[in-house]
Design brief:
By secondary structure, the chain is of the alpha/beta class. It contains 13 helices and 9 strands.
Amino acid sequence: MATYDSIGATYADTRRPDPRIAARIHHALGDATTVINVGAGTGSYEPPQTIQAVEPSSVMIAQRPAGSAPALEASAELIPLADDSADAVMALLTVHHWSDLEAGIGELRRIARQRIVVLTFDPDINHRFWLLEEYLPEAAACTDTPAIGVDRLATLLGGARTETVPVPHDCTDGFLAAFWRRPEAYLDPHVRAGISLFAQISDEVIWPGLARLSDDLSTGRWHQRHADLLDRETLDAGYRLLVTDL
């Protein structure tokens, strides 16, 4: 599996927190006065009450802004913190990168006193996103990111409640489906560098689909095919917030 030491160099630039998604995450954290961020990356969406970040990539840690919570270079599967270390633990768009999901979830449950908040995606919905379904089906099949069902994850978390997180049309956080109404962005290598899917598969797999997308944009075929998207403000691309009270 590709590591963020190799694919995370542009994250601080292309993966800027979206304020609408941030509001959903911070609301889910409730009245927690201490928070640990696991798989923290560059620190996106960390609330002021974050006391500790856990992140395995030194490249990502180096991009954390000045004044961020201290970061431990460690994996989710083995977190060097005591039991019940914080009121809440959050893990955002990270569980699909873990080598041992059960171990990682067990660690979240161990270090959280009151609540766990996980942002993930439903693979059944996400893989129907137009970019994957129409242009990059081979890429979706070749990725080494495991498909983690939301129901399975909710069960491992101990019965999490699930909330849909719609993606705004002008989302500032450049994850895979962020540009659903701005298709030309996927032709920009700088944008693609911040999306882990593109880093996990070879150019030979990606380029034919991107060439078709470029052609469909230049001829107007994409806009004709997806005219229903052009006036929408948000899209359900499968992103889900799972919240567990302990």
